[in-house]
Amino acid sequence: MSVLQGILLGVLQGLTEFLPVSSSGHLALAEHFFGIETPGVTFEVLVHFGTALAVIWFFRRRVASILVAAFSFLTRREYDEPDARLAFHLVVATIPAAIVGLFLEDIVGRLFSSPVVVSSFLLLTGCVLWFTKLLEGGVRKEERTRDAVLVGIAQAAAILPGISRSGATISAGLALGLGRAKAAEFAFLLSVPVILGATVMSIGDAVAMRGELGAATMAGTVAAFVSALPAIAILMKVVTVGRLHRFAYYCWVVGVLGIILSARGGSF
Hints:
Low-confidence stretches: none
Distance between the termini: 16 Å
Number of strands: 0
Radius of gyration: 18 Å
Oligomer: single chain
Largest sheet: none
Number of helices: 13
Structural class: mainly alpha
Shape: globular
């Protein structure tokens, strides 16, 4: 993998991580059809780390407030603070994805090698997004523990390549009656703990990278961070005005195209 390829994949990751079209699905299809050989999971984890940094930067004031509230709870057991409840709910919502990642890592990893499977899950993502057209969105500005559990399960399902994490979690939040802005914010913040955890698990392999491969991975991580920032802003606006379903058509087109190319044994 060259540095240029690393940058291109990083930009692809940054844009598709938060636009509800599945970054993992796009990376898997791009690597397969364009014949790009990456260091596998380590590269994908690190470019995801770039997008997690983008979330932290975009919501830096909210993140700081949540951390202060969480520290206050841990030291003084003050749980009435809304941001302390949010911190607790983020932890709760992270558990399903952590369990799936630990126990089904090998199975999920094999799915990435099948463009037909990835494309099929993209078609499913399109259906989920389209049904948000039927959801008015609630008015609640705070999530409940039950909401956190169910949105967390939606995030766990998004470990499958082709299932959009942002699409699944925002859709789940809207279906549960959360306000549009709240559903989007919770979904974005929820991405951070899982990605940071995966990054810590892969830090050894990342440090071992040398030469052009290491440079390409670093360039891809930076590119993911830079490209993720406008993607977050765009999706926040799209969700607020209730147009999330429009991304369904894109997912269907890419999914069908991926299946057709796979059947022909083609590549770009």
